[in-house]
Amino acid sequence: MAKSNQNQRLHTFSALVENRPGVLARVAGLFARRGFNIESLAVSITQDPSVSRMTIVAGGDERALEQIRKQLSRLIDVIKVYDHTGEAVVERELALIKVKADSSTRSEVVELANIFRAGIVDVSEDTLIIEITGDEEKIDAFIQLMRKFGIEEMVRTGKVVLPRGFQPQKKGARG
Asked: Is 101 helix (H, G, I), strand (E, B) or coil?
């Protein structure tokens, strides 16, 4: 994803939130009211079933995104907010890609999937569904290679992140 200007940059936020109805709508609404597009959003429960982790990627200038982070921290159902921009994190994305693959192209598609450590999760006479995980650049590169075969359908999860190793709570976290 290209930066629109020098002041714009993608930020990756994690928000630990109460796992209850309406929280996602309130968080997404905060971004919408401020005129920010969410580039990706992934939500799931954590090791504690009463808490969900939201990973939100949004672009904007530093000052405006800092205001978003502060406002997000003040929402009633939000437990903690982290801005992972510039941190050492493990980040992954998942994609499922349905690719045309007949008898003449199937072995080449399978070979490329193997090179990218992707898995074939469904086979039909004319298509393969490939599951691939990795960082955004890896997924983008694989998709680019699959385009020549013909992508029938595709879905991506968006980024999920966790900080590497033990990192003490830093400024920007609440809770």
From this structure: coil
Instruction: Specify the DSSP element, H or E, that contains 60.
Output: strand 51-61
Angle at 98 between CA 94 and CA 102, to 5 degrees: 140
Q: What is the pLDDT of residues 86-133, one digit of tens each?
A: 889 999 999 999 999 999 999 999 999 999 999 999 999 999 999 999
CA 117 from centroid of its chain's CA atoms = 19
Count how many Cα atoms sit within 13 Å of the Cα of residue 144 in the half-sphere of its side chain.
6
This prediction has a pTM of: 0.78
- For 84, the token pair is 């992972």
For the stretch 41-93, pLDDT in tens is 999 999 999 999 999 998 888 888 888 889 899 999 999 999 898 889 999 99
Q: Do strands 119-123 and 127-134 pair parallel, antiparallel, or not at all (unpaired)?
A: antiparallel
Report the DSSP pairing between strands 51-61 and 38-45. Answer: antiparallel
d(CA 11, CA 18): 22
CA distance linking residue 74 with residue 71, whole number of Å: 5
Question: What's the CA gap between 156 and 130, in Å, rounded?
Answer: 12
Interatomic CA distance for residues 8 and 35, integer angstroms: 14
> What per-residue confidence (pLDDT) applies to 9?
78
Give the bridge partners for 43, in sequence order. 54
In this structure, what token pair is assigned to residue 143? 């998709």
